[in-house]
Amino acid sequence: MSDGGTASSGTGPGGASSERLTIGKVLAALSVDFPDVSASKLRYLEAEGLITPQRTASGYRTFSQADLQRLRYILAAQRDRFWPLKVIGEALDALDRGLTEDSGSGATGLEPRPGRPRPPAPLPDPEVPSARSLLGRHTVSLAGAEVREASGLDTETFAALETYGLLQSDHHGRYGQDALSVAAAARTLAAHGLEARHLRPFRTAAEREIGLAEQVLATRHGNGTREERAAEIVSACLALHVALVRSGLSR
């Protein structure tokens, strides 16, 4: 079926109208940087599952600005990096799961990166996180192998951290940003001779702080939402913990 219909308009959050692009408009937008792109090429990328345009009631494909940005990424990866579609699909999956952030450079907003995408190994935060940062953490979704690769943990240590409850996956078997931080900290401590079994007291202490925060939230009322108050309480607990450790080490 032809895709030459008129672009439809969707309603965005709050009732704002957002224009969707026909395949013709998408080709026109892409042709400056990718003069060889064609409608059949876009249909092929859709068939491969790399893009998912919406359809109008008449069956015409329509694209959002996010779809256009995604297409720029795909075409640039093919032209400049010579990536096969399988690698591009893995990179897009990584981006979709939050493994890399918008670089803020270039017209695409998503710049192809050399080699297979991998999450950066996080370093322990040098300062206690604020309540605001606890509320606005960047979300990632990683497989266990990706956590091990990013943190440098071996399989045995990773399994031990899970056994002692220091690493916990969600019901899909995925791990988030906090799991990366735990793994990175455990890797650093392992270099100083501390094994996973030595880290169990940290889990116990964390559970006590969580229990204390939940008790306060249940029995005391304050300003802000429950989430904001919980973040403020936990942030203060962390600050107290750091201060006590520093004080003890300085004696």
- The H/E string reads EEEHHEEHHHHHHHH
Judging by the overall fold, what is the CATH architecture of the largest domain? Orthogonal Bundle
Form type: elongated
Q: How many domains make up the coordinates?
A: 2
Strand proportion:
5-15%
What does this protein structure show overall?
The protein is mainly α and 251 residues long. The protein folds into two domains: 9-96, Multidrug-efflux Transporter Regulator, Chain: A, Domain 2, CATH 1.10.1660; 131-249, Multidrug-efflux Transporter Regulator, Chain: A, Domain 2 (Orthogonal Bundle). Helices cover 51% and strands 5% of the residues. It contains ten helices and five strands. It has helices at 23-31, 39-47, 65-81, 85-96, 131-135, 144-151, 155-163, 177-190, 200-219, 226-249; strands at residues 9-11, 17-19, 21-22, 54-55, 61-63. The strands form two sheets. The protein has a three-stranded antiparallel sheet. The chain has a two-stranded antiparallel sheet with strand order 1-2. Helix 6 (144-151) crosses helix 8 (177-190). The protein is elongated and about 70 Å long. The model is unreliable at 8-17 and 101-127 (pLDDT under 50).
Brief digest:
This protein has helices at 23-31, 39-47, 65-81, 85-96, 131-135, 144-151, 155-163, 177-190, 200-219, 226-249, and strands spanning 9-11, 17-19, 21-22, 54-55, 61-63.
